[in-house]
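Propose amino acids for all 254 sites.
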């Protein structure tokens, strides 16, 4: 009997130990295990800063560029501006005026295609009985600056700005513009001037600064200044009666 009791006590003790051990194991199984690598990755992701937003300029996602400092050109912009500015094309047409500039080193002479078109125009003018001599073609940034400063010395800034372009803003630097015939407003009333106005587009040119558009182009009427666009486009612009800025849809009051 005592043996049975001792046996029962021993079985009870073993059963209790088993249950106690099983309970601890079950409790440990319910606890989430730590994953050091995953936790490290989580920390690194949380530590990554948010990307900086690109400033929006004019509704477009382009970075705002501060204008370089330094000596100012006649336009009021820094000379350094003309070291980095890019040419502006609108519908494939190079546009140069008081707002849109050329880089300082742009161009090295007359555009070959435009010059050949000029020769055709001059031959046609001679056949019609008119002289259409080339008075001025390509001008570098430096040449235009010298010319502009000479005009300012004579007429002052305000008046010079109505007929002379700032360096970096002259169509002559493109190699696509020519002054022909007679550089004088009276040229418009001569037979040669009227012929040029009526036939320039047939050779790919427009009168770049037409009468009545001074507040848009920023320059006085220049019946001698022609700009090459190619026959098709020049004809469309001529027939529209618009200046180039208006035709391209970028007209502003100068």
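Proposal:
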């Amino acid at each position: 009997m005592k043996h049975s009791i001792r046996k029962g006590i021993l079985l009870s003790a073993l059963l209790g130990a088993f249950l106690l051990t099983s309970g601890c194991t079950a409790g440990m199984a319910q606890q989430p295990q730590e994953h050091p690598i995953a936790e490290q990755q989580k920390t690194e992701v949380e530590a990554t800063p948010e990307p900086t937003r690109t400033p929006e300029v004019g509704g477009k996602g382009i970075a705002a560029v501060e204008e370089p400092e330094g000596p100012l050109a006649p336009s009021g912009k820094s000379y350094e501006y003309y070291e980095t500015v890019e040419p502006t094309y609108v519908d494939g047409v190079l546009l140069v005026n008081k707002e849109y500039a050329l880089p300082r080193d742009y161009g090295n002479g007359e555009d070959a295609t435009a010059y050949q078109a000029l020769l055709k125009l001059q031959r046609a003018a001679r056949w019609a009985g008119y002289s259409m001599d080339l008075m001025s073609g390509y001008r570098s940034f430096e040449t235009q600056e010298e010319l502009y400063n000479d005009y300012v010395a004579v007429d002052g800034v305000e008046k010079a700005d109505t007929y002379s372009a700032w360096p970096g803003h002259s169509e002559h630097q493109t190699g696509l513009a020519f002054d022909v015939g007679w550089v004088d407003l009276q040229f418009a009333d001569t037979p040669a001037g009227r012929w040029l106005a009526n036939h320039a587009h047939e050779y790919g040119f427009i009168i770049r600064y037409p009468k009545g558009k001074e507040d848009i182009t920023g320059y006085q009427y220049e019946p001698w200044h022609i700009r090459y666009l190619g026959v098709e486009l020049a004809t469309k612009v001529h027939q529209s009666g618009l200046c180039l800025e208006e035709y391209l849809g970028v007209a502003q009051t100068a």
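The longest helix spans residues 2-29. The chain has ten helices and six strands.
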